[in-house]
């Protein structure tokens, strides 16, 4: 039963997330086609990131803390306490967000100088105007994060997984139909409308989990005070992680035009497999880890963590190699059209090369951080995040001199590796029951299988793509790339079979249960 629920939850989450991510790529493709990798796109990219960073500094912290606390009330069956705490957290978060928005609007010019010190003149003024338009998105993003935390604590994942769908549809339509006529400011207004659409979608899902609106803000609630104490370390971890991105964008703003946009475009490609495969698994497992930790079932928690880390490794390893080997082709297929020319493709592909090296540790870090939060340890991820940020900034400052924007992406990947490995060592040292030997074995198996796949793809890549040339049409380039992906997938799976990887059987079992269960339910219902 548990495996069935996990399979169905992950499958539905992946399906909805896939639709949202594909629409997100369509949004980026339309933006690239209309504006290219230009100063205007750089201005929009910086402006778009500002509300995201400000929200992440507050909303993500309290959302992360909410899930274990609310899940504990749900596990005890105390619905009254669940509703009271949920709405108390809502009103407290809303108050914080309104104060943050007021301060941000008053200091919009200062924020632009902080995020993009290399912008001057008309580009600075454009960025400031776009920022003023999109800053109210902080409130919508915060409410969306609160709803996601509440729904996930109740193991309701459908609405949170679908929130990006209406936003991306709005942005695609606005960019294509209004951006070409009214410019980038129309896209900024469309972005704000997209943020609002996410709130509307999830608000309707709250009633389905038994959470009607309750006008309560109990400052004396002990859970609220505990949430405030636990939020501070999580806040520091989130701020430091975002700070490294701020530094990266600031460095990119001083590089040749298009550098900031190419980093943004590459980062979206880099996040695609993580958002489609890694984040859904981590999101679905988080409430389970919280319940296991609350019940002091450390062996079960250790098994959950190792199983998830191994799955993430076997999924991310071949995707990392594929992104490195086919970075130019992937970038060209996604972006190279309209104002996005071959030079923009090469700039973005360079960033993608180095970002991709951080796929595995990114997935590990997300899972391990939530494992720490489940155990009530919010300080370790905070200190880990601060040290990772410092390392990323130092490496960026060093590497950007020699590698340009590629050095910024490489610094991010190296710092992510350090963060993930550091969390593993800290968990192992602090909790003797948590053992990572299965992960070490799985990593070695994944490395062998990925090496075999890479050799096969590299051997076929030259003859297959060499005949097409760099100006190949979309259809032949797509067909050739799909052939390479297919060959790589077959070789990788055969290698896993030869190595006897147990996750192959687990995935087969989960898929079988997910498909068989509806048939069983129909038979019972008909009986």
Automatic annotation (TrEMBL):
Name of the featured protein: Probable lipid II flippase MurJ
Subcellular location: Cell membrane
Annotated NCBIfam families: murJ_mviN
Primary localization class, coarse: membrane
Sorted UniProt keywords: Cell membrane, Cell shape, Cell wall biogenesis/degradation, Membrane, Peptidoglycan synthesis, Transmembrane, Transmembrane helix, Transport
Pfam name, any one: MurJ
Protein origin, superkingdom: Bacteria
Membrane topology: Multi-pass membrane protein
Reported function: Involved in peptidoglycan biosynthesis. Transports lipid-linked peptidoglycan precursors from the inner to the outer leaflet of the cytoplasmic membrane.
Transmembrane segments annotated in the record for this chain: 48-73, 85-110, 130-147, 159-179, 265-287, 308-326, 346-364, 385-402, 408-427, 439-460, 480-501
CDD domains given in the database record: MATE_MurJ_like
Family: Belongs to the MurJ/MviN family.
Source organism of this protein record: Thermaerobacter composti
Pathway assignment: Cell wall biogenesis; peptidoglycan biosynthesis
Recorded name of the encoding gene: murJ
């Amino acid at each position: 039963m548990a495996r069935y629920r996990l399979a169905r939850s992950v499958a539905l989450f992946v399906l909805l997330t896939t639709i949202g991510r594909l629409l997100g790529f369509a949004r980026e493709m339309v933006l690239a086609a209309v504006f290219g990798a230009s100063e205007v796109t750089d201005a929009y990219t910086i402006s778009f990131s500002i509300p995201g960073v400000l929200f992440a500094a507050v909303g993500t912290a309290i959302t992360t803390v909410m899930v274990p606390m609310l899940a504990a009330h749900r596990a005890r069956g105390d619905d009254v306490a669940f509703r009271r705490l949920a709405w108390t957290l809502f009103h407290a978060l809303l108050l914080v967000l309104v104060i943050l928005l007021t301060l941000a609007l008053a200091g919009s010019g200062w924020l632009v100088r902080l995020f993009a010190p290399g912008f001057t003149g008309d580009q600075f003024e454009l960025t400031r105007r776009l920022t003023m338009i999109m800053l109210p998105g902080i409130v919508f993003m915060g409410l969306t994060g609160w709803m996601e935390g509440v729904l996930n604590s109740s193991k309701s994942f459908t609405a949170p997984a679908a929130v990006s769908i209406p936003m991306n549809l709005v942005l695609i339509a606005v960019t294509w139909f209004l951006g070409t006529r009214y410019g980038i400011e129309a896209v900024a207004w469309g972005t704000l409308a997209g943020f609002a659409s996410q709130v509307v979608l999830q608000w309707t899902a709250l009633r389905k989990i038994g959470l009607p609106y309750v006008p309560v803000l109990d400052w004396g609630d002990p859970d609220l005070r505990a949430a405030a104490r636990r939020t501070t370390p999580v806040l520091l971890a989130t701020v430091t992680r975002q700070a490294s991105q701020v530094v990266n964008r600031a460095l990119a703003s001083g590089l040749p035009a298009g550098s900031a946009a190419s980093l943004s475009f590459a980062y979206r490609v880099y996040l695609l497999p993580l958002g489609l495969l890694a984040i859904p698994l981590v999101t679905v497992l988080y409430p389970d880890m919280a319940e296991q930790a609350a019940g002091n079932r450390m062996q079960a928690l250790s098994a959950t963590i190792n199983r998830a880390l191994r799955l993430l490794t076997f999924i991310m390893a071949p995707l990392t190699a594929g992104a490195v080997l086919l970075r130019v082709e992937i970038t060209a297929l996604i972006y190279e059209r309209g104002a996005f020319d071959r030079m923009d493709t090469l700039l973005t592909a360079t960033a993608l090369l180095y970002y991709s090296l951080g796929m595995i540790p990114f997935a590990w870090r997300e899972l391990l951080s939530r494992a720490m939060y489940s155990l009530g340890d919010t300080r370790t991820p905070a200190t880990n995040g601060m040290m990772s940020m410092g390392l990323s900034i130092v490496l960026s400052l060093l590497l950007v001199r020699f590698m340009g924007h590629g050095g910024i992406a490489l610094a991010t990947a190296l710092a992510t590796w350090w963060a993930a490995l550091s969390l593993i060592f800290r968990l192992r040292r602090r909790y003797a029951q948590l053992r990572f030997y299965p992960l070490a074995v799985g990593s070695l198996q994944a490395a062998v299988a990925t090496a075999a796949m890479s050799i096969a793809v590299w051997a076929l890549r030259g003859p297959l793509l060499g005949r097409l040339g760099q100006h190949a049409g979309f259809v032949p380039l797509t067909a050739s790339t799909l052939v390479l992906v297919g060959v790589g997938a077959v070789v990788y799976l055969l290698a896993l079979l030869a190595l006897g990887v147990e996750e192959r059987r687990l995935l087969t079992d989960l898929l079988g249960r997910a498909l068989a269960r509806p048939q069983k339910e129909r038979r019972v219902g008909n009986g």
